[in-house]
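Encode chain A's predicted structure.
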Amino acid sequence: MSDDRAVIYFYSTTDEHGYMSNFARYSIKLGGKRWATTEHYFQAMKFVGTEHEEDVRAAPTAKEAASRGRDRARPLRRDWESVKDAVMMDALRAKFDQHPELAERLLVTGDAKLVEKTTGDYYWGCGSKGTGRNMLGVLLMRLRDELAAAR
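Encoded structure for chain A:
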């Protein structure tokens, strides 16, 4: 069965749909702290309750937060693989709840398929071959459905 929906690709924060990127500069407040971006929050949660959490939160850019979060010299929490989707969804809900203008922009995408067009990430994005799981897009579509249902 083919999917005939329109497709919206996003990646760069400077593109039309760049607001969907975790690197987009929209701060969130979550867990009693302010995070510069959802990327900061997501990466820091890999080390929740350790000094590494604060180090990632304090990163000057989302790119640096991602770099610190991907540093395998840091002790990744044991349950990370089982909680990472929920952590991402918490971050996305905070972003779109706390920035209503972004929620409106997300809703305007209608039923379009949302795809993070990455080259190297086959989990969160589509990867260079387009065969990735696109979990960031999947979670954004789930959130869009929640926002639409709440209207």
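Residues 80-98 form the longest helix (19 residues).
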